[in-house]
Each structure stands twice: as structure tokens, then as C-alpha cells.
Amino acid sequence: MSVALLQIEPTTRCNFTCGFCCGRHMPQQDLADEIFTAALDAFPEVRHVELQGEGEPLLHPGFLSMVRRARQRGIEVSFITNGSLLVPDLAASLFDAAVSKISISIESADPQSFRAIRGGMLEKVSRNLELFLEERSRRGLNDRWLVCRSRSCAARRITSRRS
Ligand code: SF4
Predict the structure, then answer these.
(1) How many domains does the chain have?
(2) Which of 62, 72, 110, 115 is the least buried, fewest Cβ under 10 Å from its Cβ?
(3) DSSP letters along 74-104, please?
(4) Whole domain around residue 51: which residue ranges?
(5) Residue 7 belongs to what H/E stretch?
(6) CA of 118 to the centre of ligand 1 (A)
């Protein structure tokens, strides 16, 4: 059997508190470095790794290192984030590492609903997203997708874009 896609969960921890999230009821821990390496070694034919699961992947202190090590093997990397930690310095490093796709899970375009659902600040996520798109534009990478995900159609209309 040939495995082309791996989904690896960097952490079950999260800085948000969504009531529907399985991760909030799981042991809170980060993936060990050696397990990540072992997973890549076990499937040398893998072409794409999704770094996501039931936690916020950017909370893992070695997230960038995981991205870089996968990219050094020629593996495409994508991930889903809640966007709250996608600050400009990190965004620049992710562009440098040539991440294929970043999906930002929003849930609501209304700040109060967002806070009720996620326990976090929509304004901070929106600001990170604006700065991310500016950096993408500065680098002339507007043909790359940044995906905003939401279970709300209204939020999807407001936040989805390809500039
Ligand atoms: S932002 Fe994602 S990982 Fe964090 S609590 Fe909500 S659903 Fe779970």
C-alpha cells in the first residue's frame, strides 16, 4: 500500500474553548519530535502532510521545525489554524518555507458570536488575516490560496477571498 497523504496532529492543546471540540476533552499534549520524524521515515512515499487535528497547531513550539523538515523532504505542507497566532513574523516564516495552503477556521463573522463560540477575539484573527494578505501581496504570491473556513455561510462570504 502506498500512502500519499498523512494527517499529523501537532497538539491537542488550544487557546480557544469551542464547546464542540473533541480536543477539549482529550489529554492536553504536544506531539513528540521523534514521533513526527518516525512518521515521515515510516512513509517515505508521502507527498503531502496536513499538520492539524483537535488542537491549535501553531501552539506547538516546534511547529515551524516540523514544516521545514517536511519541506526539506519535498513534502507539501498544509494546515488549519484558528488564526489567532498567525502573527506577521510567523507568517513570513511560513511563506519562506513555501507552505501550500493555510485554512483559517472562523465560525462566525460577528465578534460577539465568535467570542461565544470560540472563547477568543475575532478582531485579533481579522487583523492577523489582513497582515497575512498584505505580506502575501508584497511577495507577489496572490495566486496562492488562503482558505477561510466557516460553518456559517454569511461568514464564508465575508471572509473568503482570493486576491
Ligand atoms: S479553535 Fe479548533 S482546536 Fe481550538 S477549541 Fe476550537 S475547534 Fe478546537
Answers:
(1) 1
(2) 72
(3) T-EEEEEE-STT--HHHHHHHHHTT-SEEEE
(4) 5-160
(5) strand 5-8
(6) 7
Q: What is the distance in A from the centroid of ligand 1 to the CA of 55?
A: 6
What CATH number corresponds to the domain at position 128?
3.20.20.70
Mutation probe of ligand 1 site: the residue of 20, 28, 29, 54 with most atoms within 8 A of C-beta: 54
pTM strictly above 0.70: yes
Q: Which atom of ligand 1 is nearest to the CA of 17?
A: 5
pLDDT (tens place) for every residue of the chain, 163 residues total: 789 999 999 999 999 999 999 999 999 999 999 999 999 999 999 999 999 999 999 999 999 999 999 999 999 999 999 999 999 999 999 999 999 989 899 888 899 999 999 999 999 999 999 999 999 999 988 877 666 665 544 444 434 443 3
Are 58 and 90 in contact by the 8 Å Cβ rule? The answer is yes
Block residue for cell numbers 511560513:
94
85 Cβ closer than 6 Å to some ligand 1 atom: no
